[in-house]
Amino acid sequence: MNFNNHSILKGRHAILSPSQPSFLNAENYDDIIARIAPKYSSLIGTTLHTFAEDRIRYGFKVNKNDKRTAQLELLKAGVPASVVNYVDFDNMYDNLMAYINDCIGYKMQPEVILYLSEVCFGTADAISYNEKTGLLRIHDLKTGTTPAHIEQLMTYAALFFLEYRAFKLSDSQVELRIYQNNEVFIDTPGVDELLPLMDKIKSLNDYVLKIQGGY
After folding, report:
1. Closest by alpha carbon to 126, among 115, 113, 116?
2. In terms of DSSP H, where are the helices of 26-170?
């Protein structure tokens, strides 16, 4: 028998897959939407981060009236309307709105790459450094519900001081913020937390570069 050729699907996983037959237990379409929604979490995050980046970059604060514009961006990106409704977009938008407006208010720059080497770099959602006051501010937008960890932002802070050596950690203050589930989590790590992290990152970076160099 000659079976149909579906090579384009190789390596992909279906939403309704025989290898995960639990979908057969769905009692209604809401159960199916609950199964589908996580498949779009990455697309939702990317789309809303782009929405936020544009507004922060050009200083366009948002309000409740801009919610439908954000919804439209998700729909244009390919997120089904049923999924947008399922993920509680009202709450998600309130979180997004607070993030955007705070970043604009603090005159932050969106999507900034912090670089130590070709093997160690990352992109901060929004960042600013006040050269007069020595305040480093890093904000991070989370669109998922899994609790985020401040270690990611601490690593960004460490990379900042490793890249911009003219600004001394000992002369600076750091404020980190995570915007998630319509709440703002704030941390202000000190030298005693960031300096060891900087040393570890530098050591691991040097080790990986040494391995790649073949010696």
Report:
1. 113
2. 29-36, 41-58, 67-77, 81-86, 89-105, 151-163
Tokens of 103: 């970043």
CA dihedral of 32, 97, 149, 36, whole degrees rounded to 10: 10
User: What CA–CA distance (Å, rounded) separates 105 from 73?
Assistant: 24
Token duo for residue 10: 């190789």
* Cα dihedral sign, 167-170-173-177: positive
42-52 residue pLDDT tens: 999 999 999 99
Measure the CA–CA gap between 174 and 162, rounded to whole angstroms.
14
Category of 195 on φ-ψ map: left (φ > 0), alpha (ψ -120 to 50) or beta? alpha
Distance separating alpha carbons of residues 70 and 14, to the nearest angstrom: 28
Distances (CA, A) of 155 to 63, 116, 138, 174, 203: 32, 11, 11, 12, 14
DSSP category for residue 187 = E
CA distance 190 to 136: 12
pLDDT tens by residue, 94-141: 999 999 999 999 999 999 999 999 999 999 999 999 999 999 999 999
Is the torsion defined by CA of 87, 75, 104, 150 positive or negative? Answer: positive
